Amino acid sequence: MAEQPFYENAPGSPRYLPIAEHGLIGDLRSVALVGSNGTIDWYCTPSFDSPSVFAAILDAERGGFFALAAAVPARTKQFYFPDTNVLITRFYTDEGVGEVQDFMPVTGESAELAECERHRLIRRVVCVRGTVPFRVRVSPRFDYGARPHTLRMRGDTAVFESPVMSLALTSTVALESDGPDAHADFKLAEGETAVFALDQAGEHIAPRGCARTEAQRQFETTVRYWRSWLHQSRYRGRWREMVHRSALTLKLLTYAPTGAIVAAPTTSLPEQLGGERNWDYRYVWIRDAAFAVYALLRLGFSSEAAAFMGFVTTYISPGDGFASGPLQIMYGIDGRADLGERELAHLEGHCGSAPVRVGNAAAGQLQLDIYGALIDSIYLYDKWAQPVSSAQWDDVTRLVDWVCEHWDQPDEGIWETRGGRKNFLYSRLMCWVAIERAIRLANRRGLPADLPRWRQSRDAIYRRIMDRGWSDRRGAFVQHEGGEVLDASLLMMPLAKFIAPTDPKWLSTLDALTEDLVSDSLVYRYDPQASPDGLRGDEGTFSICSFWYVEAMVRAGRVDEARLAFEKMLTYANHLGLYAEEIGRTGEQQGNFPQAFTHLALISAAFNLDRALG
Questions:
Q1: 420/533 Cα distance (integer angstroms)
Q2: What is the pTM of this model?
Q3: Of these four, 10, 295, 410, 468, which has the most CB atoms within 10 Å of its CB?
Q4: pLDDT computed for residue 113 by the predictor
């Protein structure tokens, strides 16, 4: 890996690392992005959707960062401590080799909540060979860089105080102040260590030290937690390392206090550099979380599924009276429905890609497909984990009754277009899934339901899709009624068991999708020029669609092609096996990072490809 620059807090000097040049650490409440140069340039505390403390990834000058690296030219490499979410960044210099071990202590999800609520971030520096000089600079910028703060030095502790929050940095090396920032230069010889710990502080939270022995203890308990969790996996296939990294990533995107699963832990990382397709993904999309439950259940992680079902039961009640139906498409990690969108004009955006947004106006959209995703996950939870309760079934029946009444109206669709509502085929498909899975569940469990009405609606949707969703001219199913444009969401038709994967109409559609939307195994969602979505600019290929494509080919019997496409797709992961939302024209990661959608689809594709290969 090429030498990376050290962040300096001077106008014009910081450079943006590519999105892919980052690893992820977290404590099941929030996360931090650690660059391959040793800089933390994204960290929100105390939770995923809290205002940022470090956000240099969105504005190198104003965002704030925690830089820790060799003070001399060095090559760097990053890897995860095996089977954990503890991240190691190594620095190879002319005089020695050193490493920074980054982690957020996790010892459990219930009995140990009090310790986790401190939201500790530990950076342990070790010289493993020779001698290495290091430099550290801690430059928090509270509330997305909008709030000033002061710095107080108290012995080995630096306390950063702002009107909204205070943070305490404890260190085993002497710190110095530089205006509102703390910094130090130090040298380690082989076997020596230094520790930096960043904690919340405040009127009722006293700063606490972090001696080397305590850091070692927390390192060991955190490693033990992640390995114990991963040990539950039942996956023993060909791509174990990639599948398990995806599972560990999905776990990092869970919010333990409520069972919520966020779509991604970042906001406004651009889908196109210089474009406006920048969104806040730090919320619970019903669709994304439901798909994640499916992927985790496949691997044997039933407790995460149970936690998400608890989130749905506790925080999401059908019939809340939203204009978009009984459910919103997304919620806050605490179940709140108000996710008002605003722009942060004082931040320039990643590589100058404005605007930076917090909140998400798409929360008020009508997206009918979410009902199918949710009810399918409930069906699978009942089948693979534990039976749903009577209260949960009552909620399901209310949702299905609503779908029977409203499935035939236009909506904004899965891709959250801002170009007006249409009669999207994928929305019809997932309404069919919602009713069909509920019928299966009612029959298997003998649960009360208006089955005649449900069957009538299910069959009506099927006929509507086959009659109006098919284009004789294209020889394919199309994005929406009355159109001729193809859409990668159609790849879900055989995956959802709506159509046989070898049906001639489906095979013709698969060929058309390959011709129109596939580039070297990478799949575009749709063509914005042919189907305007109300936004300026282009976008990259959508990684979840690329994995759907693999799975669709597997089910169509094109196993050799599917395996090659899958192996190609794996080459687009970053050095740690992580994916953003999209892949750019030259292979760069684009969009929020890492993306739950991509990693859950990788798990499903690997599982089904393994099964086909035997």
A1: 8
A2: 0.94
A3: 295
A4: 45
